[in-house]
Structures are given as C-alpha cells and as structure tokens.
C-alpha cells in the first residue's frame, strides 16, 4: 500500500501546524509572565498544565509518525519542482523535444523558425518580420481575398440554373445528414464548365504568385522502367495477327501526390484542376464550399452510416474508374499519405487510389527553403499563413513521373500496387520512406504541446 509522504499530505501537515501553534501560544504566555502559569489563570482558564502536557504528547506522537513515514519514503522530494514530477527542468524539456523530433522525424520542423514556428528568432529575423507585417502582409492578404471572392462569383454566375450532380450517395442519405453530402458541378458539360475550369486554373496560379511562388519549375523524367511496365503485345500475338495495333495509351484514373501543405491544392488546381477528397464541412463553408463543388470534391462522411452505405472508398473507386473510362469526367487527385509531412519523407500509402487497378499519375512536390519552410507539419494554421505572407519569395519544384501502368499482380493486390508506386516516388523525389502515419502525428503533436507548455512556464519565471 502506497502512503503519501507527510509533506505531501495537506491534512496531516495542517493538523501538526494547529497543534504546534497552540503550544507556541501557551509557551509565549508563560514566558511573558516569568514562567508562572498561576499569574495568568483568569486570562487563560482554558489552558492548564494538563492540557499543555496533552498537547505535547500529541506533538511527540505525530512527530514519531512523521519520522516513520519518512522512513517509508527514503528519498523525499528536495525542491518544489520535484514535488511535481511532471514539471521537468528546462534542459530536460529541451532534450525531450529533441528526442521527439528524432522519433517523429517526418513531422519535425527544421527551418529557422523552430519547432511549431515558435522560435527563438534572431534579431535580424525579427526585424524582417516586423517590416513584412506592415508592408507585404496587408497587400497580399487583400489580393488573396479579392481573388477568392472573384472566383466565387465566377462559380456562382456560371452554375446558375444548373442542378448539382448527385451520383455519390442516395437522396435518403442526404436527407438524414441534414445538408449537402455528395454533390458537385464537375460533371457539368459545355462552355460554362470550360469557363469555370480555365478561370480556376488561371486564378489559382495568380494566387500562388501573390504568395511568392513567382516561378514553378517542372520536370518530367523519362523512365525505362515505366515504359517497361506499360501494356505490350507479345510476339505470339504479332504472329497471329500479322501486325500490332497501336492502341491509345490508357488514361490515368487518378493523380497521386505527396502531401506537404495546403498549398499543394492550389498547385494541382492550377495544373490540372482535379477533384479532391475533403471534409464534409468544407462543402458548407462560405465561398470555399461552392468552389469545392465546382472542383467535384468527394466529401468525407464522418457520421454513422447505414449498412448499405458504400462509403468514401466506394465513391472514390467509382470516380477513379469513371475518369479512366471517360475523358470528359473530372480527374480525381489523392494524397495517399493521408496527412502532411515536412517534405523530406514519404509516409505509408493508403490503398484508396489503387483499388480500381487503373493507371496512376505520380506527382512529387518539393518546397526548397532558406528561412521559412511552407510545410504544414507542426505549426498552427494562423502562424503558418502569417509567416508565408511575410516571406517575399517561396519556392516550389514539381516532378511529374510517367503514368504508372500496373501489372496484373498489382491489380489483384492494391497494397502491392501502392507500395511499388510509393517506392518509385521516393526514389525519384529523393524522399525517405517512413512507416509513420496520421495517428503518430497526432501523438507527436499532443506530446509536443505539453512539453512546450512547460518550457513557456520556465521562460516566464526567468522573465
């Protein structure tokens, strides 16, 4: 049975304090009157020699009990900090953060702004941030909001009198959810769809320019292995048919990309204007909600589903097959890692993009930096946007790999298919493979927040 040390037992300590206080008062009264208790009988009738002896006995008993409890806990805390074992020293907290960064390396920030973008900042960097806050940030913010509102108006005008496509879920599911579930304007055909797509691509690139991405170099390396993995006609088939029919290359059903930041979405919008997977709440947001429907986003349904509900993976699978068969259908874009990293690693791939067994187009995004990394790893959204707007030039490099055609074995095994594409992207993008995922990132964030909170306490005490 664990017994708390006396100095950690408030009731015990308070009892001892009261008894000692009463003895002290009595002793003082005796000293003031020459040690003669009889001279103060009228003033201290309640205090007799017998009572004093009783109190002294209690004190001796409690003191003995205290010594026994100390023997049960031979290593009592020596300081107020050690009384609370969760409160570590500043050096211990810093060491713990370094250890966390090593263990959860794919999510650790390595730029000038430090863990979670909290610094400490050099004096020169503080001056640069102060100047940018009063010059660049207001201008860029106004321009960005103007572009967002402008494109919203384009989407609003060119979707008037058009009914959204509801092929992702049944109407009864929509009614049960109390709002928009799966509906989009990406399946709308004709000149209005052309205007929405072209304006979206152009304004997305303009928005990236406003954010400091003035030029975006793209490379498309040719790989013999990719060519070898494409469908070929065997020599026996040539002998039987006499010649080889030149078939048109299969259209990729999905674009697969690594995920570093929310800026990835802007780039892909400017490059191919694909559909994305988004939270259901995004479809209800002002401005952004309508834009996401024009993109043809597949909304994640987090609420309870009926047994016959096919789920997001089923919807994505259908959209991938549709894009593969139909050139006019919107291409879907998937971040198979499921979360963002610091840009140096590639996490485990989810199999959603590979269940259909159609060809995929791998795209690798890299964000070189000198001061601030635009990777959205541990930094908060508000702090990330401010630092992004404060940095005059931001860099983005794109590597577009050839379309990956799966073998029959890969079509039969989506995990194998995902693993092979992942290794290919890691090799071409010089990325480090990691087995961590979204769950590990959440653990890292929670632990990191606790350690940094303690570190702030120490800094406040020093100040």
TrEMBL record:
<keyword id="KW-0812">Transmembrane</keyword>
<keyword id="KW-1208">Phospholipid metabolism</keyword>
<feature type="transmembrane region" description="Helical">
    <location>
        <begin position="195"/>
        <end position="216"/>
    </location>
</feature>
<dbReference type="GO" id="GO:0008654">
    <property type="term" value="P:phospholipid biosynthetic process"/>
</dbReference>
<keyword id="KW-0472">Membrane</keyword>
<dbReference type="GO" id="GO:0008374">
    <property type="term" value="F:O-acyltransferase activity"/>
</dbReference>
<comment type="similarity">
    <text>Belongs to the 1-acyl-sn-glycerol-3-phosphate acyltransferase family.</text>
</comment>
<keyword id="KW-0012">Acyltransferase</keyword>
<feature type="domain" description="Phospholipid/glycerol acyltransferase">
    <location>
        <begin position="253"/>
        <end position="368"/>
    </location>
</feature>
<keyword id="KW-0443">Lipid metabolism</keyword>
<dbReference type="GO" id="GO:0016020">
    <property type="term" value="C:membrane"/>
</dbReference>
<comment type="pathway">
    <text>Lipid metabolism.</text>
</comment>
<keyword id="KW-0594">Phospholipid biosynthesis</keyword>
<feature type="region of interest" description="Disordered">
    <location>
        <begin position="222"/>
        <end position="251"/>
    </location>
</feature>
<protein>
    <recommendedName>
        <fullName>Phospholipid/glycerol acyltransferase domain-containing protein</fullName>
    </recommendedName>
</protein>
<feature type="transmembrane region" description="Helical">
    <location>
        <begin position="129"/>
        <end position="154"/>
    </location>
</feature>
<feature type="region of interest" description="Disordered">
    <location>
        <begin position="69"/>
        <end position="88"/>
    </location>
</feature>
<dbReference type="GO" id="GO:0005783">
    <property type="term" value="C:endoplasmic reticulum"/>
</dbReference>
<dbReference type="GO" id="GO:0071618">
    <property type="term" value="F:lysophosphatidylethanolamine acyltransferase activity"/>
</dbReference>
<feature type="compositionally biased region" description="Low complexity">
    <location>
        <begin position="227"/>
        <end position="236"/>
    </location>
</feature>
<keyword id="KW-1133">Transmembrane helix</keyword>
<keyword id="KW-0808">Transferase</keyword>
<dbReference type="InterPro" id="IPR002123">
    <property type="entry name" value="Plipid/glycerol_acylTrfase"/>
</dbReference>
<dbReference type="InterPro" id="IPR045252">
    <property type="entry name" value="LPCAT1-like"/>
</dbReference>
<keyword id="KW-0444">Lipid biosynthesis</keyword>
<dbReference type="Pfam" id="PF01553">
    <property type="entry name" value="Acyltransferase"/>
</dbReference>
